[in-house]
Amino acid sequence: MAATQTIQVPHLGGVKAGYAFANDRYEPSKPTCVLINSMCMTVSLYHDQFKCKALTDVMNLLAIEPLGHGSTSCATEHFTYWDSAIVALQVMDHFGIQKAFALGTSQGGWIVTRMALLAPDRILGLMPLGTSMDYESSDSRSKGCWDPAAHLTPFFEKWSTPTATPDFIVDDVWCGLVGGIGFGAGATAERSEFWTTTLKEVYKGDEGRKKVRMALACLLSRDGLLLRLGDIKCPVYWLQGTDDTPFGKVVPTEQIARFTSSKEAKLVFIEGGAHYLNVTNPQEVNDALLEMVTKYQ
């Protein structure tokens, strides 16, 4: 399901941002970690983190749905990952959270890194999961990363129409693609059913079509961050599954070395982990997050 709670923030003429706190509360005495979900997922992606008492005893967990996702909507049809980073920072503002750690899965990794670039004094540590800091360049593709344009552009073209589509509903092919790439061997009938139901609820009607179309446009046209990574000073704990289909192992190994100004930058491969690593390997992710927050809070 998508977030059941939203707040209004000012970016882009007004954004209604979907969010969820673990245990439905924010405790100012504890450090906070912001969680940003992967493509077409929602705050529900972080179910295993929200239910982990070892984490919630120590920190607040605040999941935020980026633009084009879940219950988040805005006054303008067009936006980028930089906009989603600004929205997440403004959600922090709303709750009086001056500083936070930030964890992002897949595209969430690109977004939280942008948060650290835009507000270096506010992000205490980064945990990218199953991601890449480049765009889908020819260099990254030559090193085993996927080519989303070849596979996903037909969806964008199908969803692009000047005619209103009140009966639109995202199809089973897209739902299966999102889940298959993300969960890999960790896909189950229960997960597939849950996320198919969720996606069909979020992406329906004319607004739903526009929403998923622009979410995909962000993916297909995003800018890379390689030249900017040396400006990040906070610690970076990057976790990557050995069975990550989109980004593999070569590119993360090269890119972690670009965090030259970080207090600590390390890459850990999780054996058998798939793309949505916090779901397929929650214990390893939870342990690493607890380590980072405990060390750098």
From TrEMBL:
<dbReference type="InterPro" id="IPR029058">
    <property type="entry name" value="AB_hydrolase_fold"/>
</dbReference>
<dbReference type="Pfam" id="PF00561">
    <property type="entry name" value="Abhydrolase_1"/>
</dbReference>
<feature type="domain" description="AB hydrolase-1">
    <location>
        <begin position="58"/>
        <end position="131"/>
    </location>
</feature>
<dbReference type="GO" id="GO:0046464">
    <property type="term" value="P:acylglycerol catabolic process"/>
</dbReference>
<dbReference type="InterPro" id="IPR050266">
    <property type="entry name" value="AB_hydrolase_sf"/>
</dbReference>
<dbReference type="InterPro" id="IPR000639">
    <property type="entry name" value="Epox_hydrolase-like"/>
</dbReference>
<dbReference type="GO" id="GO:0047372">
    <property type="term" value="F:monoacylglycerol lipase activity"/>
</dbReference>
<keyword id="KW-0378">Hydrolase</keyword>
<dbReference type="InterPro" id="IPR000073">
    <property type="entry name" value="AB_hydrolase_1"/>
</dbReference>
<protein>
    <submittedName>
        <fullName>Alpha/Beta hydrolase protein</fullName>
    </submittedName>
</protein>
<dbReference type="GO" id="GO:0016020">
    <property type="term" value="C:membrane"/>
</dbReference>
